[in-house]
Design brief:
globular; alpha/beta; Rossmann fold; 15% strand; 45% helix; 9 helices
Length: 249
């Protein structure tokens, strides 16, 4: 039986992914802080999709708990073959320049905690015997990590680090049954982006989730979603630095 562990399951993208996985026959473990708030979603999926859904209290900043997480989740909820890492923190991009706490939270949530928990989960998945069906890691990074821009360079640096980490993890696990997908969404209509200035070409969580599941099933390595962000970011990366410094991006 296929089971997926979704980290950061309270996000809009995570919940859209959860529904799509359940529709495809996956049982679910929804992990997040204050995970009891996910009970209505869990009950709805169990009722409509007839899938098993477990809840798990999870905090990526609690580093001491992350090493034991895979074994504890497996023992309590059953073996899982897919990890979907969706959590992240945008924060106030002006405040982060001078507020150490905000800076630490942005870097810790988007990179350090993600890298630590994925390291231990990768070891768990690699050690599974006789994996039945697709196995892998889906990591949600961001187009913000493709180039440092004055508007969000701290967030972008953390997401850029996560993208490189996932790339290395994919290379390490290439000879195993565990596939690693890096997802780089553009602007998505979620509470994290609500009220931000300069948003354009905003996608729905449902569209992004559909792209992600399709890309994983096709064993894609990197997904820009929606698709046109690949070309937007290519253009941004190609701007010479002497010109880029003059842009207000």
């Amino acid at each position: 039986m296929s089971r997926a562990l979704i980290l950061g399951a309270r996000s809009a993208i995570a919940q859209a992914i959860a529904r799509r996985l359940a529709a495809k026959g996956w049982d679910l473990i929804l992990a997040a802080r204050n995970c009891t708030q996910l009970q209505p979603l869990a009950s709805d999926i169990e009722l409509r999709q007839d899938r098993s859904v477990s809840l798990w209290e999870f905090d990526a900043a609690d580093f001491d708990s992350l090493e034991e997480l895979p074994a504890q989740v497996s023992e309590t909820c059953g073996d899982f073959q897919l990890v979907v890492l969706v959590f992240g923190y945008m924060g106030d991009q002006l405040r982060v320049r001078g507020d150490t706490g905000e800076l630490e939270r942005t870097l810790t949530t988007n990179f350090t905690g993600a890298a630590i928990v994925l390291s231990h989960l990768a070891n768990y998945l690699e050690g599974l015997e006789g994996i039945d069906g697709p196995a892998g890691i889906i990591g949600i990074s961001s187009v913000a990590g493709d180039r440092g821009r004055q508007s969000n360079y701290v967030y972008g640096a953390a997401k850029g680090g996560l993208s490189i980490f996932l790339q290395g993890l994919r290379n390490r696990l290439a000879a195993t049954a565990v596939h690693v997908l890096t997802v780089k969404p553009g602007f998505v209509d979620t509470p994290m982006t609500e009220g931000l200035d300069g948003l354009f070409l905003v996608a729905s969580p449902e569209r992004v989730a559909a792209d992600i599941i399709k890309a994983f099933e096709n064993r894609r390595n990197v997904l820009y979603t929606p698709w046109f962000w690949r070309y937007i970011m290519l253009a941004i990366r190609l701007v010479p630095e002497r010109l880029f410094k003059k842009l207000k991006l």
